[in-house]
Amino acid sequence: MPTIMLDPGHGGSDPGASQRGNLEKDLNLSIALRTRDYLRKNYDVKVSMTRTTDTTVSLAARTNRANRENVDYYCSIHINAGGGRGWESYIYNGPVSSQTVRAQQTLHKYVMSVISKYGARDRGIKRANFHVLRETKMPAILLENLFVDTTADLNLLRDKSFLNILGDAIGEGLARALSLKKLAKPKDPEKPDTGMYYVIAGSFASRKNAETRSNMLKKNNVEAIIKTTKAGNATRYRVQAGAFRNKKSAEQRRNFIRNLGIKDAYVTADS
């Protein structure tokens, strides 16, 4: 089964571009989640994400993870700024495979065939020396999805139905670019590829702080384990407070933990 990594740009302490309270990081995540769900529902593919919540992830951590997991294709999702209009795609401006070139052409053509009907302009197929394109070992693309600081584009980006259409178009474009196998019967996009939902109750640079959080949860009869993860060259200690096959059960555990005062607890499909 092929694997695609979706990379919602920015996040956490890095908001990206913004205009009148509309933050690039939030729009990137909304589009990427919709793309993930479209692919999972309709195609035989595993979809991984560099982030599924509003968290800070360095550029190195994003590409290191993609390379470590040896994914088949990497797609970085961004919103443009600078006073222009329209949609554009990028691949690395250095040596790339013929597959990288063909995939960009197929994806770009399909997405534009959909969103041009809503007035989105085609800014063209481009190449650039972006970190996520240069440092990934697999074919990679970066999409700039309209301009947050141009009224006509922002009006589209603020329209939830358009964001859904855009996310679906990117998903279908990726499927066509990679010749993914369509599922005979669409599946539930809410079900993670691992089949499990995890409740995360904190991520710490210090193991001692993670242990303090874990002990606090255990005193409140909540199972908790500490899992070591890597973010670039930094080690993080993540407190996992449950693993569930049912999303509703995971959300109930998350809500219970939030009521204990841990307001940043969240559910993820990533282990």
CATH class of the largest domain: Alpha Beta
The level of helicity is: 25-40%
Rounded mean pLDDT is 92
Radius of gyration equals 19 Å
By DSSP, the count of extended strands is: 12
Description:
This protein has two domains: 3-177, Zn-dependent exopeptidases (Aminopeptidase), CATH 3.40.630; 197-268, Sporulation related repeat (Alpha-Beta Plaits), CATH 3.30.70.1070. A hairpin with a 2-residue loop joins strand 2 (18-19) and strand 3 (22-23). It starts with a strand and ends with a strand. 38% of the residues lie in helices and 27% in strands. It has helices at 24-42, 59-69, 98-115, 131-134, 151-157, 160-177, 207-219, 247-259; strands at residues 3-8, 18-19, 22-23, 46-49, 73-80, 87-92, 122-128, 140-147, 197-204, 225-231, 234-244, 266-268. The mean pLDDT is 92. It is built from eight helices and twelve strands. The protein is globular. By secondary structure, it is α/β, with parallel strands linked by helices.
